[in-house]
Amino acid sequence: MVLERRSRRLESLEDEAFALIGSGGYVASEADALADAVLALSLGKNVLLQGPTGSGKTKLAETLSWLFAQPLYAVNCSVDLDAEGLVGFKTLALKNGQSVIEYIPGPIVKAMKQGHFLYIDEINMAKPETLPLINGVLDHRRTLTNPFTGERVQASEGFGVIAAVNIGYVGTVPMNEALRNRFVVIEVPYLGGARLRQLLWEQSRLKDGLLLDRFVQLSADLQEQIRSGQLAEEAGSVRALLDACDLAAYMEPLRAIRMAITDKLEDERERALAANLAETLF
User: Fold this and answer.
1) Which of 30, 62, 65, 105 has its Cα between 20 and 30 A from that of 97?
2) Could you tell me the sign of the dihedral formed by the alpha carbons of 36, 38, 39, 43, in that order?
3) CA distance 198 to 150
4) For 169-215, what is each residue's pLDDT tens digit?
5) Domain ranges of the chain
6) What is the architecture of the domain spanning 2-187?
C-alpha cells in the first residue's frame, strides 16, 4: 500500500524538484522496525527513533521519506536552538526600492503548510523551554500559533513528524513527560550479523568477502565492550564502520580503522582497547 502511494506521489511531483526527499537503503536490525515506523506514520502518529549514535536513525528517517515520497524538512537541535530556528524569522528586504520587513518561514511552518515530513534530530539536545512552542504541532490539534506573525498555522494533510533521540549522550537532557508522550517510540539498535554484512556489502566500496566478515566481527566486539561500559557509544557507529570499509578498499585495514574509528575516541584507554580489538582480527 505504501509503495503504491509512493508511486502516485512521485507521479504528482515529477515536474518539481524536491531536494529534501530522502533516499532508501536503511537496513533494519530487527525485521519489524521499518514496518512499525511505516505503520505509525500511516496512522498519523509522531515517531521517535531511539538508539545510540551512529545506529542509523537519520538513515531510517530518510528511508521513510523515500517510501512515502515526502520531502523531509530537518531541524537539528542544540542548546542554541530557539524559536527562529523552528518557525522562521523576520528580516529586512528590498521591494520596489523600499526596505520592508519580510518573514522567512522555518522548517516547521514549511512542513505543516505543504503537508510534508518534519525531522527533529537529537531532540533531547534542545533546551527544555524551547520545544513546548510546538506542543500543539505534536498533538491532535496539529496547529501552531506563529509568534512572529500571529498566524495560526494548521497542518495540511500528509504532514508527519519523525524525531531522533540519543539516550544518555553527552549534552543531552531528559525529555519531559509531556513531550515524550506525544510520540510512539521505535528502538533503533546497532546492526549486527548478516544484516550488517548486507549493509556493508551494498553501501561500502569494500567487496572482499573475508575482510567484510572481519569488519562484522569487529563491530560485534566493539558493541560488546560498549555494553560493558568499556567503550563510548561512538565506537560502535555504523557510519564510522562504513567509512573504515570504504578506506580499507584502498589501504591496509588497520590504518583505515584507526582513521575512521579509533582516533575519533577521546579517551586514550578507549583508543588502546579499540586498537587491540582490531589487531586481533586484522
Assistant:
1) 105
2) positive
3) 50
4) 555 666 778 888 899 999 888 788 888 898 899 889 999 999 999 99
5) 2-187, 193-281
6) 3-Layer(aba) Sandwich (3.40)
Strands of 117-121's sheet, edge to edge? 72-76, 117-121, 160-165, 47-50, 184-187
Grid cell listed for 97: 526600492
The H-or-E segment that residue 120 falls in is: strand 117-121
How much is the pLDDT for 163? 92
Q: CA–CA separation, 239 vs 261, rounded Å?
A: 10
Q: Say how many residues make up the chain.
A: 282
CB 79 within 8 A of CB 127: yes
Q: Look at residue 248 and give its three-state secondary structure.
A: helix
**pLDDT tens profile 226-274:** 888 899 888 888 889 999 999 999 999 999 999 999 999 989 999 999 9
User: Which of 136, 160, 158, 157 shows the shortest CA–CA distance to 146?
Assistant: 136
The percent of residues in the chain predicted with pLDDT above 70, rounded, is: 86
Q: Which long-range contacts (C-beta less than 8 Å, at least 24 apart) are formed by 77-84?
A: 77/120, 77/121, 77/122, 77/123, 77/124, 77/125, 77/126, 78/122, 78/125, 78/126, 79/125, 79/126, 79/127, 79/171, 81/125, 81/126, 81/127, 81/130, 82/130, 83/130, 83/133, 83/147, 83/148, 84/148
Pairing relationship of beta strands 72-76 and 88-95 according to DSSP bridges: unpaired
pLDDT at position 232, please?
A: 86
Assigned C-alpha cell, 222? 566493539
**What is the identity of the amino acid at 255?**
R
Helical (H) or strand (E) element with 88 = strand 88-95
Give the up-direction half-sphere exposure of residue 280: CA atoms within 13 A in the CB hemisphere.
10
Q: Which of 15, 137, 109, 117 is nearest to 71 (CA)?
A: 117
